[in-house]
């Protein structure tokens, strides 16, 4: 069988061990045990430093733990290993946005949209960044897409109304504010 067989067997064992560690870590996250999950993901990264998922999950749980700098580094590693990792892009964009680095955040969010994979509140975050940059039309477009994604979110309707007001589209602003109020009342009744 030789050395090649032995090496492949070792790699397969390591891959399945990393996969098992990631599953264990995800289960810990689901139980709100981020600290324990951090240690599990550290083991996975140590065992397979080229595994993008291990770096992503480690970055994610470090972010949950408030260790923003280390989380950023892990998410960067994840993206270097797999530039298509949508979750790593999203959470890295959120970190960069919070640190006042909007240009890279916008590029990451836009790449999620371009790939047809706008996770969570990507459009809302993107609209905020566009609005801060004075790009009101792009902000409007992003919020319109956010409403398509989550039509019952009154806060998005309200923000859309604000931007419509700023660009002088008063009828659309009024309709957006009315929708926001209807949704708010429906929420309160619920």
Tell me, briefly, the overall form: elongated
Indicate the percent of residues in helices.
over 70%
Spatial separation of the terminal alpha carbons: 67 Å
| Overall pLDDT | 90
Order of helices and strands: HHHHHHHHHH
Query: How many strand segments?
Result: 0
Class per helix and strand makeup: mainly alpha
Alpha plus pi helix count? 10
Strand residue percentage: under 5%
- Profile the largest sheet: none
Low-confidence stretches: 2-10
| Rg for CA atoms | 21 Å
Give your account of this protein's structure.
The chain is built from ten helices and no strands. With 190 residues, it is an all-alpha fold. The longest helix is centred in the first third of the chain and has 29 residues, at 2-30. Residues 2-10 have low confidence and may be disordered.
Supply the key terms.
0% strand; elongated; disordered N terminus; mainly alpha; 190 residues
Topology:
Elements: H1 2-30, H2 34-47, H3 52-64, H4 68-81, H5 86-98, H6 102-114, H7 122-132, H8 136-149, H9 154-166, H10 170-189
Helix pairs in contact: 1-2, 1-3, 2-3, 3-4, 4-5, 5-6, 6-7, 7-8, 8-9, 9-10
Task: State the gist of this model.
The chain is mainly alpha-helical.
């Amino acid at each position: 069988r030789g050395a090649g067989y032995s090496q492949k067997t070792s790699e397969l064992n390591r891959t399945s061990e990393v996969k098992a560690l990631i599953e264990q870590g995800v289960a810990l996250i689901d139980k709100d045990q981020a600290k324990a999950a951090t240690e599990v993901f550290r083991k996975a990264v140590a065992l397979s430093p080229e595994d993008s998922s291990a770096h992503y999950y480690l970055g994610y749980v470090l972010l949950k733990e408030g260790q923003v700098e280390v989380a950023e580094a892990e998410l960067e590693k994840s993206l270097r290993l797999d530039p298509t990792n949508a979750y790593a892009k999203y959470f890295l964009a959120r970190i960069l946005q919070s640190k006042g680095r909007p240009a890279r955040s916008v590029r990451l969010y836009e790449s999620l949209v371009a790939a047809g994979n706008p996770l969570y509140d990507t459009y809302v975050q993107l609209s905020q960044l566009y609005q801060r940059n004075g790009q009101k039309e792009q902000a409007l477009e992003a919020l319109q897409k956010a409403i398509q994604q989550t039509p019952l979110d009154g806060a998005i309707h309200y923000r859309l109304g604000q931007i419509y007001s700023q660009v002088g589209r008063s009828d659309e602003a009024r309709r957006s504010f009315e929708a926001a109020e209807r949704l708010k009342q429906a929420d309160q009744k619920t």
